[in-house]
């Protein structure tokens, strides 16, 4: 079943797509208000797609059902991401990418972005996808199964923007740095930025994201 999503269509002709995955307990509506803040140049024709994660029980939250890309059974970093759940959600997001390709958008004009849990999916899926995408935006996030990355990654020439909060109490910055190191070790063109913030997105970061997207999609 295809994921439902909030879609922000471009004013001009559709030329590029950003698929942006939310964090645990949020929805596609959570990040949609960022589109007017980004104020992308109309000539780039950027469509934003904000999918809703499936609703499922989350172990660390007492089994409460909420929107989640995968279950979290432990706060320990090496056990935090349920690998099977990550792979299942990645397959669902892959369908969204295929829809964009089928509509005539080139793979290098598709950006996969994600915050927290959504970033885990983005970092997992994009390097393993059968075509090289325009880039990955991984915000306040970490990596699932880093030990399998070298064997499974198809595209190691991807551009990656990683941003993290120095005071993040949910995903420690060290977890983000570990993912960044894995990307760099495997030859990906990853850039790292951190800000004095918690588990959130700040104004300076939005300006950075805007500039990065313009460079990737011009």
TrEMBL record:
Which Gene Ontology terms cover its molecular function? hydrolase activity
User: Which parts pass through the membrane?
Assistant: none
Alphabetized UniProt keyword annotations: Hydrolase
Organism expressing this protein natively: Pseudoalteromonas ulvae
The Phospholipase/carboxylesterase/thioesterase domain is annotated at 5-213
Q: Which Gene3D superfamilies match?
A: alpha/beta hydrolase
Please state which protein family the record places this protein in: Belongs to the AB hydrolase superfamily. AB hydrolase 2 family.
Q: Does the keyword Transferase apply?
A: no
Record's protein name:
Carboxylesterase
């Amino acid at each position: 079943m295809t994921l439902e999503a909030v879609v922000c269509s471009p004013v001009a002709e559709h030329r590029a797509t950003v698929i942006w995955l939310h964090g645990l307990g949020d929805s596609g509506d959570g990040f949609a208000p960022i589109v007017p803040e980004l104020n992308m140049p109309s000539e780039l024709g950027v469509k934003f797609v904000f999918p809703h994660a499936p609703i499922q029980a989350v172990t660390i939250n007492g089994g409460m059902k909420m929107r989640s890309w995968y279950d979290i059974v432990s706060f320990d970093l090496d056990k935090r991401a349920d690998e099977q759940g990550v792979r299942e959600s990645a397959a669902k997001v892959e369908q969204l990418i295929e829809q964009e390709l089928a509509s005539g958008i080139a793979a290098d004009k598709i950006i996969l972005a994600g915050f927290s849990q959504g970033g885990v999916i983005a970092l997992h899926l994009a390097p393993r996808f059968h075509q090289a995408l325009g880039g990955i935006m991984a915000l306040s996030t970490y990596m699932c199964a880093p030990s399998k990355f070298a064997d499974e990654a198809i595209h190691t020439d991807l551009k990656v923007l990683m941003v993290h909060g120095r005071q993040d109490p949910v995903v420690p910055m060290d977890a983000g740095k570990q993912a960044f190191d894995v990307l760099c070790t495997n030859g990906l063109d990853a850039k790292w930025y951190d800000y004095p913030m918690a588990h959130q997105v700040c104004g300076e970061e939005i300006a950075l994201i805007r500039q990065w997207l313009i460079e990737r999609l011009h």
